[in-house]
Design brief:
about 280 residues, alpha/beta, Arc Repressor Mutant, subunit A, D-Maltodextrin-Binding Protein, domain 2, 3 domains, 5-stranded mixed β-sheet, 3-stranded mixed β-sheet, 8 helices, 12 strands, about 25% strand, rod-shaped
């Protein structure tokens, strides 16, 4: 297998015109440079340089090899310089996983502003209330509501909401009656997030005395989005503690500038929301 370091060394020898010149630039002995180029020639099975006491001359194979490799070596060097330079700017694709109604909260004007500020950045929104696997789905940044379960990821709270209550449509209550106790919920059709297997779901709610209670409900209908129409409160003395909105990303280490810039935008725009914000149904 070709050693890319030896190819870069060969290109440097050609540009400097001698083994000694390349050795001075790299700070290594001249015979080390000569030996590694010889090893490259042996690996390729052809001579790249004609050596004499006065100068080095490229063979025809060496000219062709240098022509094909020199630009690539330069590109790799410049890429490394760009990434290690403090003056670089955000660039590249940022894949954002978010709930289906994300754009109801994070308005498109903010995204347009972000893209105008960072012209080398591209955004791809992956909108679904299903919890994406950040690694498998190649998600750079994800937004999650509810309890944070992805302990393997880095999570930062954007804001915390207040408590979530139980609600129902007026038409449903008119047809099926208003539940007066948690036990009454057993006689009602409840809507839950997408489930697999049993249609029985456990809801955990905080009662008026502050004690958490669990009630098992029947879920005849489930979905993976929380958008709804006009709703009214049901059993308002029972609440589900809110968990707010959390930003997730796979790792803190070597976070791409484009990803970091987008996270900064999120906290700039959403971080000032009231800590007791409770989204209202439309």
């Amino acid at each position: 297998m070709l050693d890319l370091n030896d190819i870069a060394l060969f290109v440097r020898v050609v540009r400097s015109g001698s083994f000694a010149g390349a050795a001075r630039q790299l700070g290594v002995p001249s015979n080390t440079v000569s030996r590694r180029v010889q090893g490259l020639e042996q690996h390729l099975g052809t001579r790249l340089l004609q050596r004499s006491t006065r100068k080095l001359t490229l063979t025809s194979a060496g000219e062709e090899f240098n022509a094909r490799c020199a630009g690539l070596v330069t590109g790799l060097f410049e890429a490394g310089q760009e990434l290690s330079s403090g003056s670089r700017e955000p660039s590249g694709l940022v894949r954002v996983g978010a709930p289906a109604d994300f754009l109801d909260l994070f308005v498109m004007e903010w995204i347009a502003e972000f893209l105008a500020t960072h012209p080398k950045v591209r955004l791809a929104l992956v909108l679904s209330d299903s919890k994406a696997d950040l690694i498998a789905d190649r998600i750079d940044v994800a937004f999650r509501g509810g309890p944070l379960e992805d302990s393997a990821y880095v999570g930062r709270h954007v804001f915390c909401t207040g408590n979530d209550g139980l609600v129902a449509s007026p038409a449903y209550l008119a047809a099926r009656g208003v539940p007066n106790t948690l036990g009454d919920l057993l006689q009602h059709d409840c809507v839950t997030f997408e489930q697999s297997g049993s249609n029985s779901v456990t809801w955990r709610l905080a009662g008026p005395d502050g004690i958490n209670e669990a009630v098992q409900v029947a879920a005849r209908f489930s979905g993976n989005t929380a958008q709804a129409g006009r709703l009214v409160p049901v059993l308002p003395e029972y609440q589900r503690p809110g968990h707010g909105l959390t930003v997730l990303y796979p790792s803190r280490r070597h976070l791409p500038l484009a990803v970091s810039a987008f996270i900064d935008l999120v906290f700039e725009k959403l971080g000032q929301l009231d800590a007791t914000l409770t989204p209202q149904p439309p």
